[in-house]
Amino acid sequence: MAQADIALIGLAVMGQNLIMNMNDHGFVVCAYNRTVSKVHDFLKNEAKGSKVIGAESLEDMVSKLKKPRRIVLLVKAGQAVDDFIDKLVPLLESGDIIIDGGNSEYRDTTRRCQSMKAKGLLFVGQWSQWWRGGGTLWTLTDAGRT
């Protein structure tokens, strides 16, 4: 069975482009989408002839990953992120990494970092925080440093 370096959940345009970029830089990526037909379509079209592999379930995806497992979530910010985290946690082991690539609200990112740290998992979240001056401060937070 092929062993992927990283998995990405969410095959909208940004997810597909990030997968192909990682593939172009020598990484084996496992693609997953909750609508499995999108995985099949992506593998037959945009990822045809690449090293990208697909998964038909979260269990299948996790089984195809090298340890420590690295999983990128590119799903809608908010409840969808929490729902995927809840489904992933029972499948993962201490030291595995979940990366939220969406634009989650910073309080959600902080909460997730603390929760994952307590479970022995690493969480990397990207969030933006508006400041009074009218701009956006971009920050990355991870469970190992909170």
From TrEMBL:
<dbReference type="InterPro" id="IPR036291">
    <property type="entry name" value="NAD(P)-bd_dom_sf"/>
</dbReference>
<dbReference type="GO" id="GO:0004616">
    <property type="term" value="F:phosphogluconate dehydrogenase (decarboxylating) activity"/>
</dbReference>
<feature type="domain" description="6-phosphogluconate dehydrogenase NADP-binding">
    <location>
        <begin position="5"/>
        <end position="125"/>
    </location>
</feature>
<dbReference type="InterPro" id="IPR006115">
    <property type="entry name" value="6PGDH_NADP-bd"/>
</dbReference>
<dbReference type="GO" id="GO:0050661">
    <property type="term" value="F:NADP binding"/>
</dbReference>
<dbReference type="InterPro" id="IPR006183">
    <property type="entry name" value="Pgluconate_DH"/>
</dbReference>
<protein>
    <recommendedName>
        <fullName>6-phosphogluconate dehydrogenase NADP-binding domain-containing protein</fullName>
    </recommendedName>
</protein>
<dbReference type="Pfam" id="PF03446">
    <property type="entry name" value="NAD_binding_2"/>
</dbReference>
